[in-house]
Amino acid sequence: MYGQTEGTVKAKLIEKTSINVKNVVSYEEIEGYPDANAAEVLQRVPGITLQRDQGEGRYVQLRGTAPELTNFSVNGEQIPSPEGSHRYVGLDIISADQIEYIEVSKVLTPDMDADGIGGNINIITKKATKDEPVTNISIAGGYNQLANTFDNFQGNFSQSLRHKKLGTSINASYYRNNSVSQNMEFTYHKLPYQDSAYQARGNNYHIAYDEFQLRHYTVSRQRIGLSGTLDYKLFEKTTVYANGMFNSFNDRETRRRVLYEMEDPGNFNYYNYGGIERDVKARTKHQSLTTMNLGAEHDMSFLKIDAEVSYAIAREKQPDRIELGFENHGQTIPLIVNDDDKDYPRIKFPSDSALKNATDFETYEFNGLQLSNINTLDENKTYKVNFTIPLGTDKNIGNIKFGAKYREKHKTQDDKSQVYSDYYYDDTWARRRWYTAADFDGPAINATSFSNGFSENNLMGKHYVVDYVPDPSLFLDFYENHAHQFYLTYEDTKYQTYGDDYKAWEKIFAYYAMVNLNVGKFNIIGGARFTLTNAKYQGYDFSFRRKCKI
Length: 550
Description:
- The protein is about 10% helix and about 55% strand.
- The mean pLDDT is about 90.
- It is mainly beta and about 550 residues long.
- The chain is built from eight helices and 23 strands.
């Protein structure tokens, strides 16, 4: 029983003796739940809210603030984000099996980084604590009903040993999950209804559907984690240590979508002009996060010194990302939204001709293509030193603490995209689109050209249908032989390629001083922190000039 609760008791002791408001989750609590990543471990902590992706926790919100207002650390030092669109970290990249403790600090003190208004979340990796060898092995599997597969697996191996002055710990984890998810999404806007009964009224301004989407996702995720700790008691009061952690997260997702666009509403349920698009988005994200810490602690009776050098790098690669769609171009289709079941409304067609136009997939035309390769890098280098002076011989009275920190950050994103708006299969078609072409000799394409037979006839368990969505692999095979027949949209390509590219450099220097004083049952903290930030950002701003011949 002692071995099973030792970590929990230590976590509660840390909470009790902490000088700020802090929650601590121990590895025993983590092992008691089937949490796959660090974000899901935090979901039971008071004041924590998760933002989920495909049902799995990803971004963490602390005390109701946005994720970008919280600092995320590993072994006490901030970690960079592999994603290019923001600075905060999706904690789904870190496996739950690598964690010894998670500290959630809801109040900042002067010795903590000052750029986290919401607070700080610190992940502490496993380390050697016992003289005898400790080995843990765990294996788990799972089943996904929608994917109809048992191809879900999770395994972990860890070993720690402390021999005299030397402590070592290693940990390895693997996670694989294949799943399917389905959902519906709606957007609304306000505008006048076209029915005469509404137009005769004084206030003809009502809510109407804008889009109605049916979505089917195929998701495959793989997470690999490696971590190690080495500490050595160099002298009686001097300890040196080295920590390292590597995480790899591969997220492959294919989204198949049927999109109904609705305009000119007669009333809330009837739309005079409608369009239907069948599109696909396929992308694979390769994310990695590496952290390394090298430090030393020297504790004398009148002074404690700790110093550390740390390095962290995060990367994300999105190779061969594709977004492709076909729509019933040029055919206006009236639509009816049947909302007898308010939770599951359905699209109906008011006439046989409208139904024929909606289901004649050979008339669907190419509606656009975007091919992208995106690379992101975020790198932190940090140097810090802290000095702690106890107040008197009794360390429980309090202490004076001061120190300094210097951090360099370098972040870049490079997006190479190609955006196509039209497909030409003969000279006549090219001229009709006002472009010239020497020779366009190729097959006509439509929504049936790249269908691989995929059909979901019971989406959401309510018999919604998603079919005739283009298959990315079949289309890319065709594109390799007919790339010259697709019209590259210059403005959109340049905007997508250069608009998301940037380089950022930051140099942050901080120093602080604080007093921690215990008076009876009261704990008094006072201090200040000064931070100087030198930032340089490089991006692109561009405009287009077009010449027209009449």
